[in-house]
Structures are given as structure tokens and as C-alpha cells.
């Protein structure tokens, strides 16, 4: 994370998170990162989802956003629309908010940082697996090359012995 320009919305200089995005690594602001990863966190409390509480969540009717049932009034759980879908002017970063906004901004930044860390961890694991696969491929190619050289050497040795026998 650093203070730079967001590669998705162009705002900056602001806090950005380096994440895999659309097949490349990009620096996204907290708002863009949260907007592009709606199913990874609760849009009400900004807690990251884990697999242990999957049964106590509800998905937005229009997008992949998933909220904790405990974060919603019980009447809204059957026809849930996330804040982004229910309000066309919604923004994950509300610069006009006054009371308690610093804590909320920190919570959103922390949520985005956790999402970015998990994404980079997955990218690193994938890169490690690809590197290990390439190492194994190189070892097989090296073994095959060594065997081919040994076969050529044996053929050349047999050729030399037959030339001597013929001479």
C-alpha cells in the first residue's frame, strides 16, 4: 500500500493496494478494490468473509455482494440489496461524512488491505506452483537431453568400432 494514483478511477494521490486485476497487477484505491470484490466482504460491517459462516449470510439480488444476516434488519434478509445496488449515488469512500468517518475509513482501508493481501497470497501460491512445474519440466528435459547425448555417444562409439573392424 502506498499513496499513488488509482489505476482504475484515476483518483490520487491516495492510498492504493497492489492487486491482481483483469489479468495484470494494478494499484487500486480502497473504493475501487471494494467495488471490484463485492463477494469477499460484508458491505455493512466490512468484515472479510471466511468459510465458517457461509450459512449465516445473504447475497444481494443484483450483484455478488454478500452481507452477514446479523448486520441486516430481519425484514431485509429475504430481498436484500447491497448499499451499492440500492443507492445509485453510493460510494465506498464518502468524503462528506463527518462523525466517526475516520474509524469507518480505517475499517474500509483495513478490509481492502486484507482483500489485497489474500489476493497477493493466492497470486504468489500460483506463481510458486508454476515455477515448481517449470523446474520439474526442466529436470525432465535435462534428463532426456543427457540420455540423448549418451545414445549419440554410444552410436558414435559403435560406428568407430565398426570402422576399425572394417579397416
From TrEMBL:
The major lineage groups are: Eukaryota, Viridiplantae, Streptophyta, Embryophyta, Tracheophyta
Q: Which organism is it from?
A: Salvia divinorum
Q: What is this protein called?
A: Uncharacterized protein
Amino acid at each position: 500500500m502506498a499513496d499513488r494514483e488509482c489505476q482504475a478511477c484515476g483518483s490520487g494521490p491516495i492510498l492504493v493496494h497492489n492487486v491482481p486485476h483483469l489479468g495484470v497487477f494494478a494499484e487500486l484505491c480502497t473504493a475501487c478494490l471494494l467495488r471490484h470484490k463485492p463477494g469477499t466482504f460484508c458491505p455493512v460491517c466490512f468484515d472479510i468473509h471466511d468459510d465458517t459462516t457461509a450459512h449465516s449470510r445473504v447475497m444481494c439480488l443484483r450483484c455478488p455482494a454478500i452481507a452477514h444476516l446479523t448486520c441486516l434488519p430481519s425484514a431485509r434478509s429475504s430481498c436484500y440489496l447491497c448499499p451499492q445496488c440500492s443507492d445509485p449515488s453510493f460510494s465506498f469512500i464518502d468524503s462528506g461524512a463527518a462523525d466517526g468517518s475516520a474509524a469507518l475509513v480505517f475499517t474500509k482501508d483495513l478490509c481492502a488491505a486484507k482483500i489485497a493481501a489474500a489476493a497477493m497470497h493466492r497470486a504468489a501460491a500460483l506463481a510458486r506452483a508454476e515455477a515448481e512445474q517449470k523446474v520439474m519440466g526442466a529436470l525432465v528435459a535435462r534428463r532426456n537431453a543427457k540420455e540423448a547425448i549418451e545414445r549419440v555417444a554410444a552410436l558414435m562409439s559403435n560406428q568407430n568400432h565398426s570402422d576399425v573392424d572394417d579397416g
